[in-house]
Amino acid sequence: MCGIAGYIGEEQAREIIIDGLKRLEYRGYDSAGVAIAGDKGLQIRKAVGRIENLEKLMAEEPVSGNLGIGHTRWATHGEPTKVNAHPHTNEDGTIAVVHNGIIENYAELRTWLKDEHGVTFKSETDTEVIAHLIGLMYKGDLLEAVFEAVSKLSGAYAIGVVCADEPDRIVAVRNDAPLIVGLGENCNFLASDIPAMLKYCRSIYFIENCETVLITKDEVTIFNAKREKVKRDIYHVTMDADAAEKGGHDHFMIKEIYEQPQGILKTIERRLDENGRVKLDGIKLTRKELSDIERVYIVACGTAYHAGLIGKYAIERFAGIPVEVDIASEFRYRNPFVNAKTLFICISQSGETLDTLMALREAKKKGARVLSIVNVVGSSVARESDDVFYTWAGPEIAVASTKAFTTQMVCLYLLALYMAAENGTLEEGQFTRVMDELKRTPELIREVLSRENAIKKIAKRIYKNENVFFIGRGLDASIAFEGALKLKEISYIHAFAIAAGELKHGTIALLDMDTLVITLASQTALNDKIVSNIKEVKARGAEVISLAKDGAVKIADESDDVIYIPECIDEVAPILAIVPLQLLAYHIAKLRGCDIDKPKNLAKSVTVE
Ligand code: AGP
């Protein structure tokens, strides 16, 4: 998500704004910029990449003034380039705007501004439309111009506006995206979130939806949708800056685990047309091209690879197309059977994993059609793909991938259902059965999260174990692999996953009284099989904790403890089943005093081979 920071007062605005933007880095971004109002009018500085690049630019091309707005951009409309970075201005550069969110009707406004008013656009962004609109409405009163312009916008947005002709005020508007005002001594602040201003003030106003706020250095005036002044209580911030960045959570990982319902909702909602059919925005795969696909290759690393295993099941089950799943670092060296009739799907949260990127290039060289499932707009994998299917999980900061994983699985199900509908391979009622359950997953995951205390209790009991086995069958085997990876990468416990049916082919020799086995048993259709696996494991003296659906009595009878997930269809169970394992890994690592968000030896994006 983007970040906004603004200041008006008696100090130089630039340092305060940059400092505020740095406290918003956790929101994820790929470019940054500032607009400072000084005696030379509005001075705009923008840079791609880290805020340090912007600071370097501002050292080379200094700006000065006591009023300004700044922005860190998480690209949605338009690649992360300097031109697309915020702030955006009107044509004569007298109005500058920073913006969080999406202007849903920006396309028609863009056309109207171009056709009716001859506006020339510099960027691909929706935000630039706002700057031109305000410039058009400006008749000497910035507040009025903003009122008028905003009345033409639809979508979710928070905006900050400054004007060269009125260098003593900031006007800001909130409509769904968060916005707060900080109250200082002879100065005031604007920001998307509390951390940006905690260093300077702890008295704030929360701006509510459809409200506009006029900020001068001595006064803050809030207006409702009817442009009437409203009173607002001052909120006194007590949390420290670190806690504020994590939304009050102790770590980014737990914050992102809790963001999964919202991430799945955003990933699904843009992909259904008015008739409830799947529409793949950003994907140009035509029905004809789809019918020419003879094989699908899914290639990724780590957690993304585990999502690929679920994707194999979904595409084969629904679309009837054979799927190979491969680890990127292996794919590249096995001279794979890839050609123009191959759909190569690469999955990557960061879109910068070098193994995955090199595998993508290998597949392209062999003529494959490349479709990527990525969380970072404009990343290398996204740019080098023929089609991109974004997970709208929002920035994932913790090294351990959680919300990206569940949204990757959702994207793969949507893709499989789309392909099946196009190929006509869906059984009667199958689409509705699966799609309806997929749409229920945010609510089902909220139910899982509400059971966190039960998970904490189990973590307390088992966190001293140094060896933990994860077993499962079918889709549960893939979740067993992901559950083991979560545990090992943040708690440093030796966690080992294996398909339950494979145990007896050697690995079972390791089981004894001290072994803890976590059994994934969410697949109702495989219950009898997994029960016999639990029995064979118990017979060796191991302790068994099973993960099963509410009411799975046979599983419970055979297990020492059970982690329950709400009843759901087998196909969708993996999206739920991973959440208790994420929570379990988190609480075990916390009890073991590990550095949860930045585990030793690991990087969030592995850009080396
Ligand atoms: C998962 O928790 C790990 N951080 C790691 O396995 C990760 O999934 C892998 O490095 C792939 O990263 P990507 O999705 O950004 O390509």
Distance between the termini: 29 Å
Number of helices: 20
The ligands found in this model are: 2-deoxy-2-amino glucitol-6-phosphate
The first-level CATH class of the largest domain is given as Alpha Beta
Low-pLDDT residue spans = none
- Output the strand order for the largest sheet: 3-2-4-1-10-9-11-15
The assembly state of the depicted protein chains is single chain
* Percent in strands: 15-25%
Topology, number of strands: 25
CATH architecture group name of the largest domain = 4-Layer Sandwich
CATH topology of the largest domain: Glutamine Phosphoribosylpyrophosphate, subunit 1, domain 1
CATH homologous superfamily grouping of the largest domain? Aminohydrolase, N-terminal nucleophile (Ntn) domain
What's the gyration radius in Å?
Answer: 26 Å
Estimated structural class: alpha/beta
Form type: globular
Number of domains: 3
Taking the sheet with the most strands, its summary is:
8 strands, antiparallel
Mean pLDDT: 93
Q: Percentage of helical residues?
A: 25-40%
Structure description:
With 609 residues, the chain is an alpha/beta fold. It has 3 domains: 3-238, Aminohydrolase, N-terminal nucleophile (Ntn) domain (Glutamine Phosphoribosylpyrophosphate, subunit 1, domain 1, 4-Layer Sandwich); 245-449, Glucose-6-phosphate isomerase like protein, domain 1 (Rossmann fold); 452-591, Rossmann fold. An 8-stranded antiparallel β-sheet has the order 3-2-4-1-10-9-11-15, with helices on one face. A hairpin with a 4-residue loop joins β9 and β10. α3 packs across α4 and α8 runs parallel beside α14 (403-423). The longest helix is centred in the last third of the chain and has 21 residues, at 403-423. The chain is globular and about 80 Å long. The model has no long low-confidence stretch (mean pLDDT 93). Bound molecules: 2-deoxy-2-amino glucitol-6-phosphate. Residues 301-304, 348-350, 353, 356, 399-401, 489, 605-606 line the site of 2-deoxy-2-amino glucitol-6-phosphate (AGP).
